[in-house]
Specification:
single chain; about 250 residues; alpha+beta; 434 Repressor (Amino-terminal Domain); Pnp Oxidase, Chain A; 2 domains; eight-stranded antiparallel sheet; Pyridox_Oxase-rel; Pyridoxamine 5'-phosphate oxidase family protein; Cro/C1-type_HTH
């Protein structure tokens, strides 16, 4: 769906809401800054991000301009919040082929903040394992909660933690890999503070044990969509899953 045809179909407001919030966070903007840039009210921007706002084409256009994108891209299920911008018309006539580019650490952490489920792996065991966990960021650390005596509770020492998002229909995606040291949170004051984050385990239950991963290396790669500029960073491996040793 491009800008010339976007007005012929009604955007899914839930898609627009999620994309608008992700784009705002990716751009490092507050709700107030988006409102000021788009000459709209901050209250309406908050309502839009919650998918509760009344809207029309003009109001969505103001939001898109404030977020340096287009209504068509905000309405697209394949929208990448970190793309440099949406090219349309004559400027999009010649599009480079997709490629893989390395993401700076700042973008990696921004993507970690936008997501809530990752995979933790501990290879230095008799039987290596990879487990999905829902997580939160605590400063620059990754924290998750689990039940004592379970496999996630055994996570300690050197670990890898990975988060990704794939759009198979568009052959787009990104992946962030964190390596660092994991430890159980034993300080009562620290546990109480983490409880205030209200991170609830998807598996349910009390899950009183908190595990903290302190990163010492954060790397990421993403596949460039059609229309994106060539990467300015050093060339990346053609395999999204390839990682530097370290």
């Amino acid at each position: 769906m491009d800008d010339e045809t976007a007005g012929t179909r009604t955007p899914d407001i839930h898609v627009v809401a999620g994309n608008a919030k992700a784009r705002r966070l990716a751009r490092g903007l507050t709700v107030a800054e988006v409102a000021e840039r788009g000459a709209i009210s901050a209250a309406w921007v908050r309502e839009l991000e919650a998918a509760h706002a009344s809207w029309n084409r003009a109001s969505l256009t103001r939001v898109a301009v404030a977020l340096d994108t287009s209504v068509a891209r905000l309405a697209s299920p394949d929208f990448d919040a970190f793309e440099d911008g949406a090219s349309t018309g004559a400027s999009a006539a010649r599009r480079p082929e997709p490629g893989v580019t390395e993401m700076p650490e700042e973008e990696c952490f921004a993507r970690l903040r936008l997501h809530s489920v990752g995979r933790v792996s501990q290879g230095a065991t008799d039987e290596p394992f990879v487990l999905p966990v829902n997580y939160a960021l605590d400063g620059g650390d990754i924290v998750f909660r689990t039940e004592p005596g379970t496999l996630p509770a055994s996570v300690h020492g050197r670990v890898a933690f990975e988060v990704d998002e794939l759009v198979r229909s568009a052959r787009l995606g990104w992946s962030v890999l964190v390596t660092g040291n994991a430890e159980a949170v034993t300080d009562d004051g620290e546990r109480r503070r983490l409880e205030d984050t209200r991170l609830a385990s998807w598996a349910g239950g009390d899950r009183p044990l908190w595990i903290r991963i302190r990163p010492d290396k954060v790397t990421g790669r993403r596949i460039l969509p059609h229309g994106a500029p060539p990467p300015s960073s050093p060339s990346a491996d053609s395999d999204l899953g390839a990682r530097d040793e370290g």
